[in-house]
Every structure is written in structure tokens, then in C-alpha cells.
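call fold(seq) -> C-alpha cells
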Amino acid sequence: CDETFNRVLGFDGLSCLLPAELHAGAVKMSVFGYDADNTSGLRATTVPVTLNIRQSGFVGDDDSPIPPTPDLYTQILQKIEEITAPDMSEYPKKDEIQKMIEQALANSETVIPSDYVTIQKLNNEILMIHESLTPIKETSHTHKNKEFLDSLTAESLALIPDLQQFEDTVKEDIHRIDEISQSINNAAHTHENLAVLDGITAEKIKKWDSISTMQTQMNSFSTAMTVYSEKVSNTTARVGSAESNINALQKTIEALQKQIDSLNSSNFITLFSNENYAQYASEIGLILNGGYHLMNDFMSLYLNFCTSANDYALSYSQTDFGWDSEILTVCTKELSLSAKSKIIISFKSGAAEDGKLYLVEKPQYIDVPVTIYVKDKIDRGQAVDLNFKWLQSENYVSVMTECENLTFGKYYLAWAGRSNNTHPLIKNVKVLE
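ret:
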């Protein structure tokens, strides 16, 4: 939460208690110190490491609670108070030392009195104590540490390792629509496809909300995105359909287009659109190789991710990311979803592959960036793993994913794009709440 806690180790300390104020989450930790022999206050600092704190759920009866962390100035004063003055009773007094020195100088022999060893020992110990107290006194009396403390800022959060590969299955609705599409193909071989097409109603089309982009791609019929116009051409070549049947089929397709045009899309919430990519960039976070970025910063680091060359679609290509990198993409806009909700993604893909599409429930309180919170929930297996598939297509196609068995609530949407053979290009993402 952008708070910094300090623990003074002193000159010989090797361990300390963690601050009692820490709670579940990620915290960065580093050690720093000052050279006691350097009057300019030379500081040495370690590279920070990340400590992930998780609640154990168990507290023993005999466990003593850790007291709150005092401020740095109070800790330093406590260290000063712990330093006690040495016992001087066993050493000679100043007058005695002076007499011993004078006697040694007056003595013609160069024999050093045995007490001189004791004097030298005393001088060395006094010097050591003086050197130990000097940096502490300077810090406490002149407050030179204030400038250092004021310069401390919160470090960027380190991230947990990349996601594991999850295996998805093809949605049952896609299978059902594929079966219908197959029945159309079979009917086309026997010239019975006209009756099948006439049986397609507006009510059925509404159930297949994945065809929301059919206004520009009329030849995409099912969520498997089989190009229907190619099927018709192949059927004509193989079977030699009469021209009258083709004309009838064309009229049926035109009628289907009118039904699609009449669909009301006002209930859809757009999470990303290439037409207004800048509008959505501030609500999209990305994680790659343990690094967290908002989309605006990500675009400045990876120049091919969202550019005019691809009409500002999200590009998970090998040009930027190398081979088979995985980029977790999180929409930070909260969504009100239920089992009736639908998610529609329009994309191109170089290959067919099981994809990764997640929903993460929004908590009542969150103290880290949404993208990091979502990543952690996915890694813990606490996300809703939706059935999703990348479909090979050289043209933009739309795939609808239903939120079956989803409990009503607030959620965040996330997906993973890979720079492998799929290297998808995502044009828009919409949600029907």
C-alpha cells in the first residue's frame, strides 16, 4: 500500500522481526547501511527481493503478537540507550597514568612498565567505543537521516511466475452449431439445404450471439467460423447444383443478414475496440515475463503490439515477443455477470488451439493493482476457467463464450495470447452482461 517500514539492525544484528503491520500480499525487502568510517555518509544498498505473504489461518495459543513498528528515529534512540559505558574501575586513574608515563621517561632503561599494556588496551577500547557512537550521535543529533528517509519511495511490485498451461475443451454450444452446420453441408449435397436454411429463425440467431460481427462477415455462420461461401462454392463444383438452387440459397442468406442486422447490440459492453483503442488502453493491464504494465506503457515497449499496421488490433506476434511467449491481458473494468452472460471476441488466428479465458470475482477490498490480483487468483486456481478456442482464420471471426453455471456477481475478464502458431490479432472484445 505504498508504505515503508524500517527495522534497525544496529552494528551486529543479523535478524529482525517483520513489521506487524504487514498483511497478505507482496512486499519488497532490502537491506541498507552506512560506512561508519566515512564522514560523508556513504550508503550501501542491496537489490530488493520480493516476499509473498499469505495468511496461515492458524495462530497458536502461546504465540505473542508482534508489537507495532516504531519509527526509525525511535529505534535509533533505543540502540543508543542499549550501549552502556564500560567499567573503568580496574584501570588506573588519569593522575596515575601521568605518573607512570613520567617514570618511564625518567628511567634510563628502555623497559616498558607492565602497566603500559593495560593503558594501551584501555586507549584502544575507548577509541572503539568512540567510533561506534559517532555515527549514531551524528544521526540522532543532526538528523542527517531525514534526507535519506524522505527519498524513500515504494518499489514496483514483483510478479509471480508465468501461468501454467490449462487444457480447455470445446464448448457444447460450438458442437451443437457445428452439427447444424454439418447438416447444412449434407443437405447441400442432396439439394435439400434450402429447407434447412428456411428453418433458421431470428430466435435461434439471438442464441448464437457469437455472430455479432456478421454484418461485415456474412460468410461466417457458426462459432467454428467455417466460411460458408466457400462451402457453397465447393458444393456447387462437386454436385453441380442448378443455378436456381444457388439463387434460392443466396436469397436465404440475404434474409439471414437482415435478421442479423435487426439484432439489438445496445446491451453489449465493449472492453476493447480497435476503432477507439486509446479509449480502452487505460483499463487494460498486461503481464509478460514477470513484468506488469498498463497498455499505454506496454505499447511504448513493444512497438508492434497495437499499431496502424494492424488497424490497431492487439497483436500477439513473434515480432515483439519471440517464440511462444504468453501475454496475460486483463480488463480492469468490473462486470456484472451471471450464467446468462456471454463474451464475444473477434480475432484472426494463424492456427486452431485451445485458448485461455478467465473470469475472476471482484473482492470487497483490493490493495494491489487489479492485473496483479487477477494473475494471483489464476495461479492459485481460484479463477473461473471458461471454455475457449482460437480458430484458424485469415479473416476476422467472432467466437461467443457462454458463462454457464456462473454465480451472479462482479468479475474481471482476462485472457492469454501466445506468440506461437496462433499469434492472434484481437479486433474487439464485448460482453453481454
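Residues 154-171, 209-239, 260-264 have pLDDT under 50 and may be disordered.
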